[in-house]
Amino acid sequence: EAEVAQSPRYKITEKSQAVAFWCDPISGHATLYWYRQILGQGPELLVQFQDESVVDDSQLPKDRFSAERLKGVDSTLKIQPAELGDSAMYLCASSLGREAFFGQGTRLTVV
Amino acid sequence: LAKTTQPISMDSYEGQEVNITCSHNNIATNDYITWYQQFPSQGPRFIIQGYKTKVTNEVASLFIPADRKSSTLSLPRVSLSDTAVYYCLVGDYAAAGNKLTFGGGTRVLVKP
Predict the structure, then answer these.
(1) How confident is the model over B88-100, as a mean pLDDT?
(2) Which fold has domain A5-96?
(3) Are the Cβ atoms of A30 and B87 closer than 8 angstroms?
(4) Which domains are delineated in chain B?
(5) Distance between CA atoms of B59 and B91, rounded to whole angstroms?
(6) Could you write out the DSSP letters of every residue in A32-49?
(7) Between A and B, how many residue pairs show a Cβ–Cβ distance under 8 A?
């Protein structure tokens, strides 16, 4: 069964350092999402891609976060510099429309 | 996008039926109702989706009244492994590129 792959699964970084997350969506899925989920809360959409184009990044803190999806396949989410409040689970999902498939996520801890 | 309201938490016992109601008073004509399940330290997983009346699959049933202003997810005969957070989403999911907005979800605890 096809899955959304994310790496790394866990990441510990010091504040002010740069960190990057990678997502490989299910083959053929044009829509790709990045979410941030703080413990005890629902996922919050950071950025949405349709192929290689950003559809929605209204909730992305653009002073420190960036996302790209070159060639409309895999995607990278970067944080520079990381802050203590960025500690969360970062989830990637892909979709053809009806149903979104999520990866296992990357648990980020900023110390 | 229609906002949804669902209970924060629910407790149940093994073997019982769990019903979670979601309110979406501002649902639009093209909107579908979708439910996701999330276990700790995992990404959400699609459970069921419907537009009107009743939808049933091997996991759950979804009941949608005629006015579509609410919906009820029904989990039959729950087990301990059904302990999770359940999210109700409303949107035009028939089209690609739709926006998925999650609320706080309902934490379901199944007790032995």
Answers:
(1) 78
(2) Immunoglobulin-like (2.60.40)
(3) no
(4) 9-111 (2.60.40.10)
(5) 22
(6) EEEEEE-TTS--EEEEEE
(7) 69
